[in-house]
């Protein structure tokens, strides 16, 4: 996927020759969060399967380092994973927008990257974090409405990231306090 979230095989080979550690942020709806205290790297496929997003036959499960007590478990294309490991060996670190960036004490973070909508809700800690595949604006509005029914996010401070202009246009009449970075 473009937009600063992709890399060519030639780029990978050049960086690997430098002996660098590759930090790969995976943009995928096949992401779940696991509390660090409960995390077992031998069970990463089970974590995805438990929430209904098991890796497909051509995918493998990977995980991030813990951030604020949470580990992101994600599915990645097997061919991509094998290429990265062949080039970098153990010098590959995976991450997700669900655990990256500023974590406010209270409020909602909405991040739209391509066809994946990330929503995180905080109130003294993360209450909710989810990655959802969206194919159009109606999907975005549907997910936000369903989340609002449970968490009342329209009345919290919200921050939009990623495709912020699209999010600003869609949410300007929903949230009482939204900021687009």
In a nutshell, what does this entry contain?
With 181 residues, this protein is α/β, with parallel strands linked by helices. The protein has helices spanning 9-17, 44-50, 78-88, 137-151, 164-171, and strands at 22-25, 31-35, 59-63, 70-77, 92-95, 106-113, 116-123, 126-133, 157-162, 177-180.
Mean pLDDT: 90
The number of helices is 5
Low-confidence stretches: none
Strand content: 25-35%
Question: How would you classify the quaternary structure?
Answer: single chain
Taken from the alpha-carbon principal axes, the silhouette is globular
- SSE string: HEEHEEHEEEEHEHE
Task: Kindly describe this structure.
The radius of gyration is 17 Å and the shape is globular. The chain is built from five helices and ten strands. The model has no long low-confidence stretch (mean pLDDT 90). The strands form three sheets. Strands 8-7-6-9-10 form a five-stranded mixed sheet. Strands 2-4-3 form a three-stranded antiparallel sheet. α1 (9-17) runs parallel beside α3 (78-88). The protein is α/β, with parallel strands linked by helices and 181 residues long.
Based on the model shown, name its key terms:
alpha/beta, 181 residues, five-stranded mixed beta sheet
Give me the secondary-structure topology.
Elements: H1 9-17, E1 22-25, E2 31-35, H2 44-50, E3 59-63, E4 70-77, H3 78-88, E5 92-95, E6 106-113, E7 116-123, E8 126-133, H4 137-151, E9 157-162, H5 164-171, E10 177-180
Parallel strand pairs: 1-5, 6-9, 9-10
Antiparallel strand pairs: 2-4, 3-4, 6-7, 7-8
Helix pairs in contact: 1-3
């Amino acid at each position: 996927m473009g937009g600063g979230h992709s890399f060519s095989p030639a780029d990978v080979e050049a960086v690997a020759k430098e002996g660098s550690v590759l930090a790969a942020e995976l943009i995928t709806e096949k992401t779940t969060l696991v509390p660090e205290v409960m995390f077992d790297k031998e069970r990463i496929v089970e974590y995805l399967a438990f929430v209904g997003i098991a890796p497909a036959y051509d995918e493998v499960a990977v995980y991030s380092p813990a951030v604020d007590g949470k580990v992101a478990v994600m599915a990645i294309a097997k061919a991509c994973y094998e290429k990265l490991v062949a080039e970098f060996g153990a010098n590959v670190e995976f991450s997700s927008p669900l655990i990256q960036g500023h974590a406010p004490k209270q409020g909602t973070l909405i991040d739209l990257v391509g066809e994946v909508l990330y929503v995180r809700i905080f109130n003294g800690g993360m209450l909710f974090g989810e990655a959802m595949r969206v194919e159009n604006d109606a999907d975005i509005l549907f997910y936000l409405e369903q989340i609002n029914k449970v968490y009342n996010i329209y009345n919290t401070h919200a921050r939009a990231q990623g495709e912020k202009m699209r999010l600003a246009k869609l949410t300007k009449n929903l949230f009482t306090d939204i900021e687009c970075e």
